[in-house]
Automatic annotation (TrEMBL):
This is Aspartyl/glutamyl-tRNA(Asn/Gln) amidotransferase subunit B. The keyword Transferase applies. Allows the formation of correctly charged Asn-tRNA(Asn) or Gln-tRNA(Gln) through the transamidation of misacylated Asp-tRNA(Asn) or Glu-tRNA(Gln) in organisms which lack either or both of asparaginyl-tRNA or glutaminyl-tRNA synthetases. The reaction takes place in the presence of glutamine and ATP through an activated phospho-Asp-tRNA(Asn) or phospho-Glu-tRNA(Gln). It is an enzyme of class 6 (ligase). GO terms for biological process: glutaminyl-tRNAGln biosynthesis via transamidation; translation. SUPFAM superfamilies: GatB/YqeY motif (SSF89095), Glutamine synthetase/guanido kinase (SSF55931). It catalyses: L-glutamyl-tRNA(Gln) + L-glutamine + ATP + H2O = L-glutaminyl-tRNA(Gln) + L-glutamate + ADP + phosphate + H(+); L-aspartyl-tRNA(Asn) + L-glutamine + ATP + H2O = L-asparaginyl-tRNA(Asn) + L-glutamate + ADP + phosphate + 2 H(+). The gene is gatB. The lineage of its organism: Bacteria, Pseudomonadati, Pseudomonadota, Gammaproteobacteria, Oceanospirillales. Heterotrimer of A, B and C subunits. Belongs to the GatB/GatE family. GatB subfamily.
């Protein structure tokens, strides 16, 4: 039997506010446990929450960024459940009237096509604390620093049909929130994580199968692997005569498997009701219009501009606009060197290759955009050739100079373009290679094209790689072809 996979994601994005959603406590990452949880976060008697306006602004910006409906009124609810890292006994969230309504996200697929994934809604809520299981010898510690941190939960429709599509959607969300500057998107620090809803159904069947929810997956790679395992598990279970149970599961990356945590709760199990301590949020048109007018250029718009104005290919434009950090770096390089295509080649080629080899992010590149732009400029104006440029890049990467110009001068890499100097080197190579010259002149025209490489190599060696390769080739051919 042929099976179809159905996937929906609930993405939790930590908003980049300085303080928590209902209190003035800091949201800074990395503080000592339980040093950033105030009386409001702990729900102590007599305290009242005060809504953080920046969290509202960021949520609305996201909604505008995905062309979503922005309701005039949204309401906070209490989601009641007991867990050690939730000291109040309830989580303040939005169940029935979220701040962002239906929208959509366009994703790019590996075959170059695009697909639109619908977003059901996005709502604001507070994060819970964090349970710590290590170093407690059979006990669990609780760090409440994260309690009250503002989250935007983005709930998709079940529109994705493969793990690849789910990862593409997650990357698109990541790009949007980081372009907007409403989150740093750091998955390693928990700034973005998602719950993955997976089900399978026979191909052609309209009704959905029973879904399982995989909680708190915190990397693109783990999302793909968790879905792959869960799809295979569900298909095998059904084909063996069993039934999929609606439940919450956990992905274990070390074992590369999902495991059952608990049977899935329904909404009524949480006893949602409007929060009595918070008034409804009313957004007037002027407020929303002001945020819309001040949105930055988003990934899709930037990609289109890179193609139409800078003449980049669809592939290059897609890669270079995939993250705000990458796009900003590329544009800075382009502004210095004045050549978008050459800048794109170096950012995607030499720079990205070295970053990948060392497992670095572009934000941590030892070579600044200004330095790379200066290097590309010297390639463009033929001060150095391609081989020398790679030497300069390596020196910049290793901190051997402040600029490409400084390294070029220090290492004597300036390209020799003086025809007389190049001719002198060529004459010497020809004089030193009588056997190879004779073989070249006896060869047919089609074989000469390959044989000339020997002479080019000798001239480049004599010039310590600084001779202009195009001039070397042209002058060599003239001299060698003479009878």
């Amino acid at each position: 039997m042929q099976w179809e996979t159905v996937i929906g994601l609930e993405v939790h994005v930590q908003l980049s506010t300085q303080s928590k959603i209902f209190s003035g406590a800091s949201t800074a990452f990395g503080a000592e446990p339980n040093t950033q949880a105030c009386a409001v976060d702990l729900g102590l008697p007599g305290v009242l929450p005060v809504l953080n306006e920046n969290a509202v602004s960021m949520a609305v910006q996201f909604g505008l960024g995905i062309n979503a409906e922005i309701p005039e009124v949204s309401v906070f609810d209490r989601k009641n459940y007991f867990y050690p890292d939730l000291p109040k006994g309830y989580q303040t969230s939005q169940m029935y009237h979220p701040i962002v309504g239906p929208g959509e996200v366009e994703i790019s697929l590996e075959d170059g096509s695009t697909k639109r994934v619908r977003v059901h809604h996005a709502h604001l809520e507070e994060d819970a604390g964090k349970s710590l299981h290590e170093d407690y010898h059979g006990m669990t510690g609780v760090d409440l620093n994260r309690a009250g941190t503002p989250l935007l939960e983005i709930v998709s429709e079940p529109d994705m049909r493969s793990a690849k599509e789910a990862v593409a959607y997650l990357r698109a969300i990541h790009a949007i929130v980081t372009y907007l500057g409403i989150s740093d998107g750091n998955m390693a620090e928990g700034s973005m994580r998602c719950d993955v809803n997976v089900s399978v159904r026979p191909a052609g069947q309209a009704a959905f199968g029973t879904r399982a929810e995989i909680k708190n997956v915190n990397s693109f790679r783990f999302v793909e692997r968790a879905i792959a395992f869960e799809v295979e598990r569900q298909i095998e279970l059904i084909e063996d005569g069993g039934q999929v149970t609606q439940e919450t599961r956990l992905y274990d990356p070390e074992a590369d498997e999902t495991r059952s945590m608990r049977t899935k709760e329904e909404a009524n199990d949480y006893r949602y009701f409007p929060c009595p301590d918070l008034l409804p949020v009313v957004l007037d048109k002027a407020y929303v219009d002001h945020l819309r007018d001040n949105l930055p250029e988003l990934p899709a718009e930037k990609r289109a501009r890179f193609e139409s104005e800078l003449g980049l290919s669809a592939y290059d434009a897609g890669v270079l606009s995939s993250s705000r950090a990458m796009a900003d770096y590329f544009e800075a390089v382009k502004d210095v060197c004045g050549d978008a295509k050459l800048a794109a080649n170096w950012v995607q080629g030499e720079l990205s290759g070295q970053l990948n080899r060392e497992g670095r992010d572009i934000a941590d590149s030892p070579v600044t955009a200004a330095q790379l732009g200066g290097l590309v400029l010297r390639v463009r104006d033929e001060t150095i050739n391609g081989k020398a440029a790679k030497q300069v890049f390596a020196a910049l990467w290793n901190g051997e100079g402040a600029s490409a110009d400084e390294i070029i001068e220090a290492k004597g890499l300036r390209q020799v373009t003086d025809t007389g100097a190049i001719e002198a080197m060529i004459d010497q190579v020809i004089a030193d290679s009588p056997v190879q010259v004779a073989q070249y002149r006896e060869a047919s025209e089609d074989k000469r094209g390959k044989m000339i490489g020997y002479f080019v190599g000798q001239v480049m060696k004599a010039s310590r790689g600084t001779a202009n390769p195009q001039q070397v080739n042209a002058l060599l051919k003239q001299k060698l072809d003479r009878a």
